[in-house]
DNA sequence: GTTCCATGGGTACGCTCGTACACATGGCTC
DNA sequence: GAGCCATGTGTACGAGCGTACCCATGGAAC
């Protein structure tokens, strides 16, 4: 019974450590050794639990995407009327959902992988499908898609833009996109 | 006069090779040796022309961002009236500007770097500023920002979504965002 | 034509990497 | 309680890496 023997959460801790490390140094900067050190497991555990870095990354980003879309779904499901749904979207864009720099960085890392490799695109597709389904509880399909794209774009600009956003512009954007004809 | 001696375009060729390689294998997959091989220069030329991988990447992505925003600016400047400007935006989103998978991949790689490191954020900021300036020749500042974000989001979704886009949805989005009140 | 030096070219060193593999441990089955 | 085997642990190896460094080359300055 020496400390770490029989450690059922080990796989999970490795995945968490991997996400933390990717957030810190990027996919470009990770290695089995660094993840092992951060998760406080021996190097051998890496290849025992995961066939390779790719398998580990896919699981890690799968967990990440699920976490984010869970939050999205919950916020949208709390809205009871059109005005509430609009407010929820504004809140998601301006602060609530991607509250941390970490989440924004991880999102971009995932998109970058998805842009190149179909295996990761499955993750982003599932994420997008869930977002759209949540939006379609309140908006027609075309509006839901456009809102989803708008959220995407405004979130990215909020992350990368150093200039202050024009006040009220997010609310205005949601108003225009969801404006009944 | 042995072949390669005095090769004034060498620096440029290295930068081009770097962009090609990043498009192929990602920032995570590059190395001095691989870039040198693709540019057909000896390994020593890498450290001679660039202080390190970071300097090379910054120059490469600087060139890439400038190329894309040049195209954006030109397309927007060709429009002479509101309808033309709207059509230009639709064209930029649906096919023209990010015509190749290569450009989309490189864009995401740049965003990922920018999300983490301020040096790269300067590049994306300059790019965004130019886009907005071009849009402000035809639209008011708030509309220009929202259009810019919409372009961003729809472009990403076009890149990552495997489901076919709803027909006419891009035109509809631009119409709603630019609709005069 | 001599000198100088920016540029090109090759190589060796020390490091980190992923992976393989041999051995240890201890819960579970019987 | 004996044996099995899933899991944990440590180490060694070969490959690829960035970098430093030395020599070669040949246009420019004078």
TrEMBL record, chains A, B:
Origin superkingdom: Bacteria
Signal sequence region: none
Feature: DNA-binding region: 31-50
PROSITE patterns attached to this UniProt entry: HTH_TETR_2
Coiled coil: none
Keywords (A to Z) from UniProt: DNA-binding, Transcription, Transcription regulation
Gene Ontology MF, one: DNA binding
Record-annotated HTH tetR-type domain positions: 8-68
Protein name, entry field: Transcriptional regulator, TetR family
Species annotation: Promicromonospora thailandica
């Amino acid at each position: 019974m020496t400390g770490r023997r029989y450690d059922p959460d080990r796989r999970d801790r490795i995945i968490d450590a991997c996400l933390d490390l990717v957030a810190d140094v990027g996919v470009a900067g990770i290695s089995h050794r660094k993840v092992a050190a951060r998760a406080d497991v021996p190097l051998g555990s890496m290849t025992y639990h995961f066939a390779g870095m790719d398998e580990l990354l896919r699981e890690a980003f799968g967990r990440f995407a699920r976490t984010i879309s869970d939050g999205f779904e919950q916020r949208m499901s709390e809205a009871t009327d059109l005005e509430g749904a609009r407010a929820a979207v504004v809140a998601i864009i301006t602060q609530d959902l991607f509250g941390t720099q970490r989440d924004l960085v991880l999102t971009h890392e995932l998109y970058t992988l998805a842009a190149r490799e179909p295996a990761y695109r499955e993750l982003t597709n599932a994420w997008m499908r869930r977002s759209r389904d949540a939006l379609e509880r309140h908006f027609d399909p075309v509006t839901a898609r456009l809102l989803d794209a708008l959220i995407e774009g405004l979130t990215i600009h909020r992350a990368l833009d150093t200039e202050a956003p024009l006040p009220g512009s997010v609310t205005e954007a949601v108003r225009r996109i969801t404006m009944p004809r």
